[in-house]
């Protein structure tokens, strides 16, 4: 009888002590989920806001700064200086070891060049086409990445992928057909930016998979931003400097430009926070949500955005294809060993300042 009573007491005591620990675990899980959703909301807000910010700076009468090369060059110089201060002066973040002259020459320089092209062409497109239409054209990005990936030996051609790419391409074509005031110059600039961004993603994947170098976005910015600034400085000298001198644009109020650059830097930092708390796929799914937010809000904020039913129908088809592509990539990542998954998470490239950023990325 005493033994039975003792067992009952011990069992009751163990249950009473496990309840608080279980409650604490639930609270911790809810807190972690809440933090993850907060980071996702921050990323979507910054990414969408940066696109509108760039559009406003480049094409509004209030600011009157129609110099995409100059704006992008300022972004890269600002990013280079800020990364140097964070990593070398304040030492808040550490730059990963492993960089050498061979990797810099064969990977960082091509990444810097394609990143510069992405930002330049993507921002220039905003002078000719609406934000919503630019986002619709960007939906073709997985197609460009896949084709270049097959050419580089990073992707394998399959019937399923061909079907997905066909759906995305068809959706973008339908959305383009529904555009009322289409500017083919703007389309060429935007598609050029898409190809440049696809090349950048391929070079980033080569850097991680073949060179074995893993870097977080701050480290990538530390190496890539100065290189991109150099590639932007050369065409800026020949294409925009004389125009800026003639227009007296050097008197432009610096506060707006500094805020614009800070938003771009904060956007890249938010990507790092989202990836560190979730996965590479999550940032892609959040990007799809962001694209819809941008398309809808741009119709409200900008007079040059006139959405039609055909626009939205075509874009919906393209987004369905993008969702199928993300699902395919998810299954592919799940089937890999854990070591490969960690590499993929750390290898996610920066969004740029004219789409997401291109406000890319």
From TrEMBL:
Keywords: Membrane, Transmembrane, Transmembrane helix. InterPro entries: EmrE-like (IPR037185), Sugar_P_trans_dom (IPR004853), TPT_transporter (IPR050186). This is Sugar phosphate transporter domain-containing protein. It is found in: Membrane. Pfam families: TPT. It is a multi-pass membrane protein. The chain crosses the membrane at residues 35-53, 65-90, 102-121, 127-154, 161-178, 184-208, 220-239, 251-274, 281-303, 309-328. The keyword Transmembrane helix applies. GO terms for cellular component: membrane. Residues 336-361 are annotated as: Disordered. Residues 39-326 form the Sugar phosphate transporter domain.
